[in-house]
Amino acid sequence: MNDGRLLLLLGALGGFLGVVLGAFGAHGLEGALSEKMLATWNKAVHYQQLHALALLATGLLARQQSAVGEKGWQRAGCAFLLGILLFSGSLYLLVLTEARWLGMVTPFGGLAFLAGWGLLAWQSLRC
Q: Which spans are transmembrane here (predicted)?
């Protein structure tokens, strides 16, 4: 699945889970969390959804431009996926467990997002 299909699958799953987790936050966690923690949950959902779309776009570009630097698209997609796991994942766990040390993981997810956007820009210039 090196022609972008895996990135499309991961983007679709990321979007699906973002809707599920957003609904859980709105209906299952409302009233059980402070406003600040609910805002943290919503920020995690927001960034997950944005980067699920980025994965979809990267997958589409990889399929369209499969003959041109396939690994570049994969690297961008991997960075977006890593960002979702580290950024959104650490915030979800922070809210659910109140383990404050997880806040130290979140910036690494932000760096992975930045790397993904940078790699996407670089790969776009190469095509």
A: 46-64, 76-95, 101-122
Predicted confidence band at 69 (pLDDT cuts at 50, 70, 90)? low
Task: State the first-to-last Cα distance of the chain, in angstroms, to the nearest integer.
Answer: 21
Q: Domain map of the chain by residue range?
A: 5-126
Mean pLDDT on 3-32:
94
> What is this structure's pTM?
0.93
Which residues touch 4 (CB under 8 Å, ≥6 apart)?
A: 58, 59, 60, 61, 62, 63, 64, 66, 73
Q: Answer whether residue 84 shows pLDDT above 80.
A: yes
Q: Which residue has the tokens 């859980």?
A: 24
Share above pLDDT 90 across residues of the chain, in percent, rounded to a whole number: 83
CA atoms of 34 and 29, how far apart (whole Å): 9
Q: How many residues comprise the chain?
A: 127
Residue that has been written with the tokens 């467990």 in this structure: 97
Calculate the CA dihedral of residues 69, 75, 80, 85 and round it to 10 degrees.
150
Reading the block at residue 12, the tokens are 């679709």
Q: Report d(CA 68, CA 37) in Å as an integer.
A: 44
